[in-house]
Amino acid sequence: LDASDGKDVATAESEGLREEVERLKDIQTQSAGDSEKALADLRALYEEQNAKLQSELKEVKEKATKQERLFNSAKQDRDLMRERMERVSAERDEARTSARELQQQNTTLMESLDDLQVEN
Question: What angle do CA 50, 45, 27 make, to 5 degrees?
């Protein structure tokens, strides 16, 4: 081989290496683009799932607040009912006591009337 053949071989090898470098650069660029797209897809999925979870959390909190209000309202109603029942019970006891007292007065009056009739 003469010097020009060696130069041609070196040039061909150099050209082959340049092509290989370009091919690898293209692969790297495509890989980076694919990675960016995958990252963007993951971000979009994350944002979508996060928004969904935030919405569900808000609904759960609203339901919990509503249930708490209902519970407190029922508790208040129960307490009011208990107070009313205690008042009614006390009034019933008073009415029974008054009825007994009236019955005793009635009995006394009837006995007095009987005594007066006997005397007359």
Answer: 145
Rounded to whole angstroms, what are the CA distances from 9 to 2, 22, 86, 111? 11, 20, 113, 149
The CA dihedral of 95, 96, 100, 106, to the nearest 10 degrees, is 50
At 63-78, the pLDDT tens digits run 999 999 999 999 999 9
Of residues 29, 86, 73, the one with CA closest to residue 37: 29
The mean pLDDT of 41-63, rounded to a whole number, is 97
Q: Which residue has the tokens 């007095």?
A: 112
First to last CA, the chain: 172
- Tell me what pLDDT residue 114 has: 87
User: How far apart, in whole angstroms, are the C-alpha atoms of residue 59 and residue 38?
Assistant: 31
Dihedral pair phi/psi, residue 2, rounded to 5°: -95, 180
- The residue among 48 and 32 whose pLDDT is bigger is 48
- Measure the CA–CA gap between 16 and 109, rounded to whole angstroms: 136
Query: What's the CA gap between 118 and 110, in Å, rounded?
Result: 12
